[in-house]
Each structure stands twice: as C-alpha cells, then as structure tokens.
Amino acid sequence: MHPVSIACSVGPSQYIRPMTGTEKWSRPMALIDKLEGHVPWVMAILVGTLYFFTMGPTVGHTDAGELSAVAYSFGVAHPTGYPLFTLLGWLFTRIPIGSVAWRLNFMCLLLVTASVYAWARFLREFFIQMRTSVKKGDSSYAIRIKLANLLATIVGTSMLCFGRTWWTQATGTEVYALQCLLLVLMLWALLRAWWAKESIFLRWGIFIVALAMCFTNHLTAIVLLPGVLYIYFARFKFSVASIKQGLGLAGIGLGVLVLFYGMLMLVAQSNPAYNWGNPEDWTRLWHHISGRQFSVYMFLGPKAFGVNLVGYLNRLPNELGWDLIWPKIPIWIGLGLMVFQGTSYAFERRREWTIFFALGFFSNIFWGANYSIKDPEPYFLFSFLVIAFLGAMLLRWAWIGYKKFAPYFTGAFLIVIGFQIFWNFGAVNQQGVRQYEDYARAALESLPPDAIVISKTWDVFIGPACYVQACEGVRKDVTVVDYSLLHDRHWYATQLRAQDPKLATALGVKLDDWDKAVSDFDLRGKVNPAILQPRFDAVYNGILSQLATRPVFIGPEIFDAITRKEISTPPNGVLPVPDAFFIRLQVADVAQVYQPVSLPTTEIHFGGDLEEYESKLLRQQLTQVWTMRADYEERGGHATEAAAWRKKVADLPK
C-alpha cells in the first residue's frame, strides 16, 4: 500500500484531520493544539527564570569591564566594535535598577531568553511546514504528527538553551548574548521568507536586515554566507532576475552595516574616554571592524587547526553536561548517531534546509577551529544550534515512523536534558562571582591620589578597573596604563590623552613620536626596530619618570617580566617596594627607608569555578604581591606584620 503525501504547510489548526476510526484521538489532539501554541513563551519564562539564578551580580573577567565602560560612556569597543550591542547597552545602563553591571548582565539574560522563545517559534513553524507521508490504516498517525512536533520543539529548544555555551551567555556581560538572539531571528526570518507567497521581496528584505544585524554585532556571522547564498538560489534559481534581486537585497544589508558601523566613526570623532581602535576615518574604521589586530590568532596552519578541532570535539560533550562524569566516548557515539539519522531524515523532508544547515555547520567549524584563542566556545554557537536542530529532527522521525521506539528516544533525550540542567547549572553559575570587581575596587582604593599603575593583566585587573572607574566612579584620579596596548596599538596614545591629559602633556613630544611610529607599525605594517624600540622606551621611561611628581606602580606581572628581561629595567636609582596590591617604584633614597602599608581589610569574595584560568590568575597575583610584602616586612624586622600578610595568602581559596 503506497503512502499518500499530504503537505502540512498551512498552520497549526490545519494539520491532517483524523481519518475514519480516529475519533478517539480528537480530544488529545485538541489538547496538543492548545499546548503547542504556548510552548515558546512558557519555555522562555521557565528557562529565563533558571538563567536568573545563575546570573552574575556584578562585572566579570576579561572583556566584561571594557564592554560595560564602553556601553555606559558610549565609546568604541574592541574589534569589531559591536555597535548594536553598545547602543543597546547604553540604553539599558540608563535604567535606574541595580548597579550598571547588574543592568548589563540582566540585559544579556533577556537577550538569551528571547532567543529561547524565537528558537522554539522557529522549530514549531519549521515542523508545520514539513512534508509528511501518511500511511492509511494507522489510526494514531495524525496525533503522532502533532505529538512529534510538540516534543521535538521542546527537546530541540532545551538542548540548545541548556547547552553550556548558550547558557553561559546569559550569566554576564558579553556580546555573544545578542548574537544568540540575532542568529535565531535570522533563521526565523529566513523561514518566513522561504515560504512567502506574497510580498516576497519584503520578506526577503526583512531576512537580509536580520542577517545584517548579525554582522553589526559580531563578524563571525560570515560563516552564514555560504548557506545563505545556496538557499537563496535554491529558492529563486540562478538567473539574471534572481541576481538583480539579490543585489538589491545585498544593498539593503550593506546600508544597515554602513549605518551602524558609521556610528563608530562618529563616536570616535567625539574623542570618548574609551575609544578602542579610534576609528575616526575610513582607514582606521576598516582596520577596526575587520579585526586585523586579531589576525595573528587566525589561520595558523593545519597543525593549529587540528589542535583546535580536537579541542572542539573534546568540549562538545561538555555542552551536554558530560565532562564531570564517565568517559566521553559514549556521548560522542550518541551524538554521531543522532547527527547521522537527524541529517538523513531532514534531508529526506527538507533537502534545501538540510544543505543550508550543513554549510553553516561546516563553515562554522572551519572558521572557529582556525581561531587559536583560549576561550573559543562562543565562536561555535551556530554549530551548537545545528546539533540541537538535528536532535529535534531525530525525535520527530522516531514519533512519526517508529511509534514503538519513540517513547524510548524521548526518555533518552529527557535524560540528556536532565544532565544538562543538573551539571551545567553548577558549571555556568556566576551568582557568587564578585572577585573581579572586589579586586579592582580594593586595588584602586589602596593607591594614593593621582597614582599611575602600569599593568598587563587585562583579564583580572584592567578590564574590571575600566568598569569600576567608568561606571561606578571609583578612583577616577588613578590612571591605569595597559602596557601591552601602549606597546602595540596605534590608537592607545589617543585614548591615553583623553583619559589623562596631564600625563600626555608631561610626555609631550615623546608620546607624539611614539604615536606616529606605532601607527606606521600597526596600521601600515612598517616594522623598523631602529625607530620603534627607542621611541617606545622613551614613552615607557617617561611614564616611570613621573614618580618624581606622582606615585607610580607596576603590577606583579610587569615585575616578573622585568626580572626575565622581557621588559627594560627602570632607570638607575629606582627601586621596587611591595605595596598592598602592586609594587611601587621609588627613588633609592626613599625606597631604603621602611614604609608601612596598611593590611587590606576589604574582603575579596571568590565564587564560581575556582579552577577557571582567570580565577587562578587572580589568586596568583595576590599571592605574589602579598608574599613579596611579607618578605619585605621580615627583612625590616617586622615579624608580626609579616605573619599578617602570610595569613592573607593562606586565607585565599585553594
């Protein structure tokens, strides 16, 4: 008996009507009809509530502080600039609820929660449009289609939103939270454009705007282009007319990009205090949005690609909460079977969309595995989305075609989702993470007025210090100099002038000469050691020489680099004296006299994963400085004070 094909493409209320003998299923089918329309918003509320209990209370490590400072002061963020995120962040920081960091963290939580709703809507509408073969004589077939769509939507949404990387974006301030939402909105808009029967250009125009918005937030959206080109020509065929229409749509997208990235140029020209890249003209703007400064981490060869690919595969089970228990081989096997069968079923039912997702998946893997950084997980967001989609497809296949085994498949998925929720809750939980703001605040407040601090620890000090100074107004008289940015980036001299005009004036022509030299190096690739090193040394030593009129401190990592001769030693007659959180540079006559330092009384509250790189780095920084201070006290014969400092070290979390 041959199946009769019936297309379910007109809406949730017009699924296959029960055939003869199926009247007994009419009531449960009506119930499912009611349930499925509520699934997206119910899941968004439930998931968002769970997200809330893992959201960080304040600023986190690495880029969170800088992004917060940029959003609050409406500056320019690190490449690629993230103009849409900055604009949304600026609006949220104006809401008078909680601290600025809490507002931005909550904004990211809302963005990821909205992505949960949009993803559930996408899956639900996608399943409605799928071709389905109806077998005559199967009285339960119609209700199984409805049940398959309902359960596949729930499972596909849960697998994505409880995945570790997706969930992490809802716990703190990062641009990837917005990317989660934009990726799903783009897919939703594409689905509606694909099925449009009227106002076709308008529908595709909405999709192009959604795609362009992905680019205004993060240029990893480039991985979508191969799939987008394929599915566009699959829909309209390759012809002169489709090319003309495509160029018109591309023009709309380009206009959106020019609008938002052009905003960065206007902001830079206003000389804000936080002005990464200083994209005040087209040359600098292109250098900034293309992320050229990060090109040193990209496409480093087959060996690096292989290492990063293995790293991705090794982290993939962690998305399902599997890293804390048992070997990873079972989950790799399970994922492999799920991807194979889910892809086979999707290809059978919606070939064009399966190819679109496959192109996006492999483009994402290729791009992400060619980027050698320590925290690459957010660069694979689209791949996680595709895996969740294939999981949903597998479950739908089971309910429609293999009703005897479908409950077992469902149970297996529920177990996986249970593991995700149970294990990933603890892995992503940022509720107790206060150490980065506590440290930046305590370190700045320990300094004398008008101090200068030279540091390289962006992740745990410079980034959080951006936040507490710009957003909380803590010790704005202190100038934090990022040694690495001063050494390498053409724009940093301009930012230094905006943040500390007095220091810029004192450096005078030394800063101007270095500005020109580092611009030639960073923007134009002109490497002339005979010019670069002497001019940088002049600026660096010029900052150190400010100790005659201003207190000058260096971070422990700078001290270590000097010891290893990676950084030039301070001028003759300048000695290091350990302080509460940094090392003070003083002239020898002053340094040789014992200088008491008050023991810090501000508690640094550690939370989250103490084995995380940034948490360990912070404890290492504190241990080094406090141990150096204890040794200093002992050399001066102050045993009681030395013991107090050593106790501070001993009290740090292990």
Outline the structure in words.
- With 654 residues, the chain is mainly alpha-helical.
- The protein is 63% helix and 4% strand.
- The chain contains 27 helices and seven strands.
- The strands form two sheets. The protein has a five-stranded mixed sheet with strand order 4-3-5-7-6. A two-stranded antiparallel sheet has the order 1-2.
- The longest helix has 30 residues, at 240-269.
- The chain is globular and about 90 Å long.
- The termini are far apart.
- The model is unreliable at 1-22 (pLDDT under 50).
Key descriptive features of the protein:
single chain; 654 residues; mainly alpha; 5-stranded mixed beta sheet; 63% helix; 4% strand; disordered N terminus
Brief summary:
63% of the residues lie in helices and 4% in strands. By secondary structure, it is mainly α.
